[in-house]
């Protein structure tokens, strides 16, 4: 009887020890999970506590755009430094390599030219794709905005009507030898692109601002070359009517190759040649350039939301007000509020 009782006591003891062990394991697993969660939380907190630094060229439009990106990031809880780091694309990329700049706005064509001088692409999509391939390791670009700083040929509306000119491909109909007015020095690649479309410009006249270009073009005694964004900033409703020569979007032929629409009014010589995919200067669309490791997915998604809202006209108006003395950050906050960002 004692043996039986002893045997039963031994089984009970074993069962108790097994149960205790299971409880200890379960508690350990819960504690481990909690600690892991705390560790993940700590990592997230440490990551989000690092201040993001934005940069910008010393240009009213780009300064406002940098503040728009900064405000959009703050709206999703990202900590962003108050001051912008100034510099051109090359300087800002150098600072990005040192992890001192995390994001800056740039124009796709200009940035591509600095990174890959031998690149020949000109259309918006091709420039964006080539830029992605040319960026330094650890640097990315977000969605391109429709904000354009592509150089365009501007003429007085009266001159366009008298010459029956609407598109850049009809540039050869303008009177030969008209002076071409530019801000500073003309870009040789841009002038070559215009010449390839039949433009027969005369001497180059250099002026100090886009407003001076617009004023000179309004006389119908000259043509002007200025970016779409600068023209939008400079245009005054009271100024003489001017217009840009349109650059039709490239189409694709039956083989899927890029081509430009043929124009029945062009010369027989130009019609006999194979159409060129280049229809003007290299596209310049505004893009956010960011250090890949610096932004979370939600932060990248937020800056890409900006691309769906901002327009050339929007940024031109903001830049015009910034140039008149308004604070870029105040202008950005107002625009973000209007667009729910």
Automatic annotation (TrEMBL):
This is Glycine/betaine ABC transporter substrate-binding protein. It comes from the Bacteria. Residues 257-281 have a biased composition (Low complexity). Keywords: Membrane, Transmembrane, Transmembrane helix. The chain crosses the membrane at residues 18-37. Residues 249-284 are annotated as: Disordered. Residues 53-337 form the ABC-type glycine betaine transport system substrate-binding domain.
